[in-house]
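We both want to read discrete structure tokens more fluently, so let's practise on a single case. Would you write everything just below, so we can both look at the same thing?
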Amino acid sequence: MDVKAQEEQNENIRQRMLDVKQLRIAECPSDSPWVRPVRIHYQQDGQQRDWDVVRAHDGVSIVVFNTSRKKLVFVRQFRPAFFYTFLPEKRGPVDLKQYPPKLGLTLELCAGIVDKDKSLAEIAKDELEEECGYDAPLKAFEYVITFRYVSTSVCKHTLFYVEVTDEMHTHPGGGAASEGELIEVVELSIPEVKEYISSEEVESPPCLLYGITWFLANKYKNC
């Protein structure tokens, strides 16, 4: 594994990730390819009720442990949805001096949406190579659990676990350039991970918290 090349790649991607300009908030179009909002009408206990739901793509996530370096491997990205949680609820341009783009950076598990005619494990394998640069054999991917997000945003998500080595690291990762992805690869030691999830506020989705907790409970002693 070329650590220097990885660090240079991360630095380059971080600069490009934060090069955000002319950001504005607008209404979501009804023909969005990513989310499909609906309103559910139903009766419960004799009462008429309504619930607004946004359906998103199903996805996969991978808990990645590098056995050569004894570190967990994550990704960092600029997420507009996460950035939006810091903004006032109004439409129009956003003052990026008052709300700098770095607010939108998240630490996540390597992941991807289910949009290919492949098995979930094959999709996970592709995402690991694209985002983190590891070419792991398909048999190395261990199924962990499938769960559904339930609130106003709904989708089905499947979690995998894979152990990798430095020898499997074929390139610095960074995501699919053809899709405009800008992904920073982040390695954390076990003590660093424990400290992170013990913070008062984490910049991560619940899937990462569950994945780390599962790893510490089921794999950490063996690793």
Observations:
- The helical segments are 3-17, 80-84, 120-132, 190-197, 206-218.
- Residues 79 and 104 are 5 Å apart (CA to CA).
- Residues 3-17 form the longest helix (15 residues).
